Amino acid sequence: MSASASAPGPRLHRVAVLVLAGAKPLDVGIPAQVFTTRASMPYEVRVCGAAPGLVAGGDGLAYYVTHGLDALGWADIVFVPGYRLPDRDDPPPAVIDALVAAHERGARLAAISTGAFALAATGLLDGRRATTHWHYTRALAAKYPLVRVDENVLFVDEGSVLTSAGAASGIDLCLHVLRGDLGVAASNYAARRLVAAPYRSGGQAQYVPRSVPEPLGERFAATREWALHRLGEPLTLDALARHAAVSPRTFSRRFAEDTGYTPMQWVMRARVDLARELLERSERGVEQIAADVGLGTGANLRLHFQRILGTTPSEYRRTFAQGE
User: What average pLDDT does this structure show over 67-80?
Assistant: First the structure.
């Protein structure tokens, strides 16, 4: 047998999508589509329920699932999509027990939107940060007072348990999981396939109803896209505000409201993210990458890499290479 024939392929990641009664269609579809098996995606997905068969969903849809709770004993990561009336209806005890057992076995548990209530019911969110759809954040905090509910984030990664805000934030969470499993390049490729932003820094405060809406979000989204194509160039607050056609003061205030970061904090994180992709996909040295992403010197790149990611560029490249 040739060496190429005997070489093992990439590790297969096993994903279970747990469909509960009243499950929301978008919440179910997002992880099922993001992680669907293809040559570029070493994932296997099993959609399951409390038992195999028909599950009544929300919004007029129902689901026929071929797997029961045994899928949670098989999976590396379990997604719990949001469902209707989460503050009123608890998941069946068998579901809670299966989620706890999966977590104890080492699986990650990830909730989309109101799926956070199911994770909270297990007790695994006690003492941890978590989020859910902004409409339900107060209900989650009231029902589970030991959970540290953060209503102004798109998702929260607490290591073995992850939660996200509304349905669209489920895409952000899935892309975040992809970045951790396969790297930035794979996540960006998946984002392009989904026609989604590679990452959206910030929170969900921009989606909470306001008495006087300000229609600047789309304009700023265009400016962020413009900046992402010019990270290797000098990017100043004045240049960003000029592109958005507002004053620097207005731009700074509204940008922070929309993203949770100042404009220059966002630019720095985008540069570090581009550096991660170059470390994964190229053999360029740290000094060259620093210049390519607009950080000037290797020392500057190392400083911001450590501050934002808690590691060094060299260690990141070495860890990513070992994980391939």
Answer: 97
Residues 6+ apart with CB under 8 A from 17: 28, 31, 32, 45, 46, 47, 48, 78, 79, 81
Confidence of residue 8 (pLDDT cuts 50, 70, 90): very low
Residue 228 pLDDT exceeds 70: yes
| Contact status, residue 184 vs residue 277, Cβ threshold 8 Å | yes
C-alpha–C-alpha distance, residues 235 and 311, integer Å: 25
At residue 200's C-alpha, the angle toward residues 196 and 206, to 5°, is 110
Which of left, alpha, beta for 217 (phi over 0: left; psi -120 to 50: alpha)? alpha
C-alpha–C-alpha distance, residues 316 and 324, integer Å: 13
Contact 23, 57 (CB under 8 A): yes
The pLDDT assigned to 5 comes to 44
Instruction: Pull the structure tokens for residue 87.
Output: 């503050």
Q: How do beta strands 77-80 and 13-18 pair? A: parallel
pLDDT of residue 309: 77
Supply 160's token pair.
Answer: 């073995």
Mean pLDDT of 56-77: 93
Rounded to whole angstroms, the Cα distance separating 45 from 57 reads 19
- What's the CA gap between 5 and 165, in Å, rounded? 44
pLDDT of residue 10: 58
Output phi, psi for 54, to 5 deg: -85, 130
The pTM score is 0.66
Beta strands per DSSP E along 49-178: 53-56, 62-65, 77-80, 108-111, 129-130, 148-149, 155-157, 161-164
| Closest-CA residue to 57 (of 34, 24, 95, 14) | 24
Q: Give me the pLDDT at residue 221, please.
A: 81
pLDDT at 199 over 70: no
For residues 122 and 141, what is the distance between their CA atoms, to the nearest angstrom? 15
Q: Which one, of 38, 122, 25, 117, lies nearest residue 72 by Cα? A: 122
